[in-house]
Each structure stands twice: as structure tokens, then as C-alpha cells.
Fold:
Amino acid sequence: MTKEERLKKRHSAEKRFRFYGLASIFLALLFVLILVHNIFSKGSSAFMKTAINVEVFFDQELLEIKNGASDDEILEADFFDITIESLIKVYPAKNVEEEDALIELFTTDAEIEIKRAFLENNNLIGKKINLEITASDDIDQLHKGNYPRDIPEDRRRISDFQLVIYDNLVENQKIVKNFNNYFFKNGDSRDPELAGIGGALIGSFYSIIICLLLAFPVAVLASIYLEEFAPKNKITDFIEININNLAAVPSIVYGLLALQILLATIQLPRSTPLVAGITLALMTLPRIIIPCRASLKAVPPSIREGALAVGASKFQSVFHHVVPLALPGTLSGTIIGLAQALGETAPLILIGMVAFVVDIPSTPIDPSSSLPVQVYLWSESAERGFVEKTSATIMMLLSFLIVMNFLAVYLRQKFEKRWN
Amino acid sequence: MNEIKIKSKNLNVYYGEKQALFDVNLDLNEKEVTALIGPSGCGKSTFIRCINRMNDVIDICKVSGNIEIDGVEINDKNLDVVSLRERVGMVFQKPNPFPKSIYDNISYGPKIHGKGETKSELDEIVENSLKKAALWEEVKDRLDEPGTGLSGGQQQRLCIARAISVNPEVILMDEPCSALDPIATAKIEELIDELKKTYTIVIVTHSMAQAVRVSQKTGFFHLGKLIEVGKTEKIFKNPDNKMTQDYITGRFG
Structure:
């Protein structure tokens, strides 16, 4: 081979490598794009809800309360009759079946929505006002275009008569799209139009806070001791190997452990953020220790020697110099560990967070759901309304993870000090 | 001839199985500069790290034999290394200022030893230390800037000032100029000349010329043994040992 040929071969090898690298990056980006597009196209509609403009007449005879009634009286009062009366006036119905079909266009919570409007303004007796009542899941999906109307009536959840009413309402501009506050405010529900991630958000929040409070101090102290104070011998080697092994243990194993020890033996309350937090802390602990030790190791020995040489004790050299320098790395490691914990599903399913919880937890020992488990729960539901809710929840979860990861990068860059 | 400040007797150092120093007997005089020369890995750094017990940091390092400062044994398990290092300062091969302000670099030592209770006392210590290290004029207007932002030579003088700040009796210097350019080196050498009036200085150096310029006494190490020690003039002009002769004339090393 001549010199020119060899040179050409070397150049083409480099070009080939560059091409493979670019192709890999392109492929990875493509997958991310497909994923994001899929989630967004399915999920973005969940942030809006369909409502129907209804004229509500607060008939004193039907309500049996007066203007200026106290909140307790209003809560006691029966709004069912005026709800039905108002809803069936949306379209002229000829018989009871048609009236039922009309009422089915609205959410089962229509009565509560009307009551809520009255609570805000209790001088409405004898008056007529227009209220936007949330539509049923079927109408919501139909209006968002997720529901095919060209299939035979017996295979549709919406009857031909209901379609006629819907078209009439659209024509009269009675149907509106509002911001879906239920999605953020409500807990889970069997009715997709009422289901929200409020409970899951609070549950995840409590779990992560408990996880942070338990895992962070233990992980930091363990790392500092192992890295700076522990003698290097077989025992510490053994501990180190086991920490690395623990970080690789499948998360479901921690779920089994929690099931056996926290629930069966200690009898902590099932399905609660407390148990979830403890389980996630066990799982996150080694995942924080590893980056924490790495950032301690990255502090140059010359800093330790400099401190020792002016007469600092070992403790002072570690806590005055090494730990502050390792802190940015430690914090970002912790945040990334917590982000992983936030997205963890399997162990939470085992400790019973998969239960159907309607109430929003007010303390960490109330039964609750969490964001990833909510995704799992909804993805199994048959109703079309839950498809968009599943994707929207994934969007929320992903945005939390992105925020946390950005925070980790930001903290590292902002507070990292350079030496020499 | 000044009085003997530091005295080592039958000093042996082991790194695990490997022996790094063999029966070193070396006396260092007070308020004098002693230079330690020898090829890489000959044990000169190991020797000075015994004087402030810096080898304690290395797990596998074992030291046997005696080192006395002012007649007091320091190679003693019960001795408090913190107060020893307050008396014996050290400057390292690579400048290693803390990634803090210039002021904090100097005030850290006095603070942890309880010197300088008030801000004005600390200010005074910082100013005096920087003046003694011939750095005051260059940094007096930017004491709150990071010490790591200074040039290499300035950083090394900052480290010297940091060592001085706790008012030690001995300053150990482990190749303090090896990372510096000739001008910065010249400044440090001038500084060493000035400092020897107050402190006992031990300097490890690879530069024969530097040993001649700054030291009054020179020790030559080879393979962990102290081959020859004596007045610097004598060592460089008329050494007793053939190996010393070969090393200083550049035949090996």
C-alpha cells in the first residue's frame, strides 16, 4: 500500500465514523420526536373541556330555600329537580326516553355545578341565568373530533337523536370549550369528564418530599463518611460493591420489600404517600450515594492537603473545603435521583397505590395515587376520555422531570467552582 | 552556626511493602534554609512530609524512627497533629489556593486556630501575611476576588502567605517553583531569602542552581537514603561522595 492509499483509508475511516455517529444521533432524535408527537397529539385536548350553555331557572317552589340562605342550607337543599328541569329545556323532547337522552348529554355532576353557582351568588331565587354545564364524556370526545359518528347507531355510545341535538346545539353556538380546571383540581373518577390528577399530584408531592427528607441526609452522610473518613479495607470495599449493586436492583424488588416489611410487619397504612416515600427513599438512596461520592472524589486532593497543612483537622478540611466544593454535584445527583423516583411505578403498585382513590389526600397518611400510577390506571380504562387524560398526565409528569433535570444542570453550572 | 531545630534519627518510611526511606539521620538548623536534592522518587518529599506528619493522610504509609522539633518527639501517636501543623507550615509543588477569596485564603488558618478574634485583628494578620509573602502590593485592592484567579506565581505566594498566617516556626516547601516560570521563581527565591530571618525553611528542589542560590545547607538523597549532607558550598564544590559528585555534575538523575 502506498502512502497515499494509507492516508486515504485513514480519512475514509474517520468519515465513516462521523457518519455513523450522526446517524445514531438522528435516529435517537427521531424516536424522541415520535414519542413527544404521539403524547402531544393525544394529550393536548385534555386541557380543554366541552361545556353546554344552559339556561337555569332557580324556581323557589322546586328549591324550597329563600334568597340569602346560608351556605349550610344551600348544601342541604335538593337541586336535582331544577337541574333536570333546566337540562331538558335545551332541546324539545317528546317523551321520557328523549328526556333521558338529553340528560345523558351532561356530566353526572351537573347538579353540583348548578349548586356551586348558587353558592357563589345566593340571590338567584326566581331568576334565570345562563350557566356553562360540563358536557358528558361522550359529547366531549365527539366535540373534540375523537369520536367517529359514521358508524352504525348500535355500535355507538351516542344515539342518532343525541347527534341531532348535538348538531342543533353547535348550530346555536350553545357548545363552548373551556379550560379544563377539573383535570388539575379533581381526584380520580369513573367519569372521564370529571377525572383529574389533583389527587395524584398531591400524592406524588408528598411521596417525593418524604423520599427527599429520608434519602438526602442519609445518602450525604454515608457518602462523606465512606469517601473521607472510612479506612480503605475489605469491609468498605464490600460496602461499596453492595451500594453499586443496590442501585441496579429492579425497583419492583423494593416494592416487595416494602410490602413485606412496611405493610405486613410494621403495618403502616396501605396506599399512602408515607409508605411510597419510604420505599422510594430506599430505592433512591444508592442512586444518590453514587453521584455524591463521585463529586467528593472529584475535589482535588490538593485542597484537602492545603487545609490540613494550615492545621485544619480532618473534620474541618472536609466540612469547610471539600463538602462545599462537592455540593453542586451532590445536589444535582439528588435531584436526578428524585426525578427517577418521581417516575417510578412498579413499587408503588405493589404497595397498593394502584387503588381507586377519589379523595384528594390531605396528609401523607391518607390513601392516594401518584402520577405514574395514575397513568397506568387510566391507560387500562376503556373510555375514550381516558386516552387523552393518560397522555396529558404523561405530559405533566414529563414536564416535572424536565424541570427537575434543568434545575440539576443549572445548580451544577451556577455553583460549581473551578480550581486552577 | 545556628542551633538545631529539627532532628531526625533512624527515620524509616514504608508505603505498604515498599520502603521509601532508610535510616535517615538529618539535622536541620534554625532560621536557615536547608535544600534537599536528589533524583525523582528518592524520598526527599517523603522526608519533609514526615516533619508535619502529612504522611498520616496516606493509609498505607508507616513511619518508624524519631523526629524531634526543639527536642520534642513528634512521631508520637498521642501528639496532636493539628497543633504540630500550626507550628510547621507547608507549601506544595502545585499552588493550591482554596477556591475562595484572597482574604479568606489567608484568614482561614488564623480563624480555625482562634487567632484574630475580631475583624480588625484578622485584617491585620491578612495584611502582614501578604506583606511578608511580597504579595500585598499586587492584591491589596482586590482581596475579595478569588485566589484561584491569580497567576501561578501569585498563587504560590498566596500559598506561602497562607502558611505564614498561622505564624509557624518551620515552613516546608515541596518543589515550590516547579510549576512556575523563571520570573515568578526569582520572586519566590527572593522571598525565601527574606523569610529565613524568621522561619526555619526546608525546601525540596530539582534545580541544583536553586539549591545553591537559596540554601545554606544541602542534603542529597538517593533511593531513599541520605547520601551526604553538609554546607551547600561544600556539597556543590567538593562533595565527599562519588554519587553526589555524579548527580550535581549531571551524570545521572
The interface with chain B takes residues 231-232, 300, 302-313, 316, 320-321, 325, 417-420 of chain A (CB under 8 Å).
